[in-house]
Amino acid sequence: MHTFIRMVKSGFSSFVRNGWLSVASITVMVLTLLTLSIFFILNIVLNTGIKAIQDKIDISVYFKEDVKQTMIINIQNELSHMSEVKAIKYISKEEALVRFKEQNKDNPKLLESISELDNTLPASLEIKVYDPNKLDQITTALERDKYKDAVLKISYKENKQIIEKLFKATDLTRQIGIIITIAFTLVSLIIIFNTVRIAIFARMEEIEIMKLVGATPGFIKGPFLIEGLLYGVIATIISMIVLSSVLYFAAPAIANYIGDMGDSIANFLRDNIVQVLAIQLGVGITIGVFSSWLAIRKHLRFS
Amino acid sequence: MIYFEKVSKIYKQAEGGTSEALKNVTLHLKPGEFVIAVGESGAGKSTLIKLINREIKPDKGKIFVGGLDYEALKKRDIPYLRRKIGVVFQDYKLLPKKTVFENVGYALEVAGVKTKEIKERVPKILELVGLTPKTNCFPRELSGGERQRVAIARALVHQPRILIADEPTGNLDPKTSWGIVEILRRINEMGTTIIMTSHDSHIVNKLKKRVIRLSDGKIVKDDQMGRYDS
Questions:
Q1: N or C: more exposed end of chain B, with fewer CB within 10 A?
Q2: B116 touches chain A (CB under 8 A)
Q3: What is the DSSP string of B3-41?
Q4: Model-level pTM?
Q5: Position A56 confidence tier, pLDDT thresholds 50, 70, 90
């Protein structure tokens, strides 16, 4: 136990006495952690965005003029039993008119063309699904003979191409994000490994002396690993301070630019601060200790 | 205490050739002896020292130190061997980022000695080499003689039965050199076996100890009460 305490003490003191090398290593690590966090948050934002878009993807089924409300309610009941369906809402002709008026309140000419007495808007069902990829199954169900005569049109069919393009685009964006994140992690690992290696190279004579006065490889390694650990912890603290202050000051600007999403990033960080901290700390400590271990390993062999 | 039996050491050279630093050397040191190895540069003195500290391995022959057969010694046992031997290097080999106290204490730390005991033993040994006022200095703040005394203190602090010193006075002026040798002599009188290499005829002649003269990798003279030029 006192050997361990000794290693911790020695790690701390050489951390302090090697001032500039510590600063260099920590700087590189802070940059790595910030990059990782930014990619992590970007990924979250992207996913939130995709989810928001997916939530907005729904099918509207418009019914012919002569279809009775009871018939539509029946269809609604039947469809709501399908496992793909998340929510289903009946929009009567009257409701459709209210919405139409709301949407076009700045366009009096368009409003003149329609009135309560001459309501040509169809009644419809708005269907939301759990998985937008399963929209096809809903439309197939609606195209069966039983409903065919009642249905005026299904909006999804018209939007199908756009929706599919959107899917492809979001998938691509996500894949690129993952690739860039992995590439960046690797680059950072190499940079930090080299920083630590230079640090150890500068102290090779010290390591040689330690071996000459009877230190075991483990005893020499300990303080270096503790130093690596300290790099990780301090880099995490700095990176968290930078990240939170940037988000705190930038959140209003981001919110202006991309609407709700900016707020949701700030909220996300606030709600998941422990998780983000844990990820950064985990990555920081792993990189610090691992690269120290990697860099010192070969200097500890006895010939 | 130290026994070399027909030991040879061959170094490979950069241009592809080889040089034989020790040729078939047989040597026996009794416990409590003070032996000085003399000879020209390249005669094999430092090789002798490095073989005892197991920094290098012989190409032929056997080495026994304190009853330990070096051939049977595993790599992972080397640190434990070195804790039994004190070594003083010509270039001191002090840890630059550690104070005098820490440098000396380090030799005890590696052996797992308790902090309380280190705090008792280090000041005593620093007093022996006359460095008490410099306890908290870093090596860069010390003179050559002081650094060498730190190195001696570190080599002695774990009370080894053997002390090896490679040119301990090589970088020092005559007066300081004699101070160092005086310390070594006192340690020897307390029972530690000492093997030291030297270039300094004045010191060798004044010490009147056993002198081994190496030349071209061979022991050419071995006199009890020897002289440098004898």
A1: C
A2: no
A3: EEEEEEEEEEPTTS-EEEEEEEEEEEE-TT-EEEEE-ST
A4: 0.64
A5: low
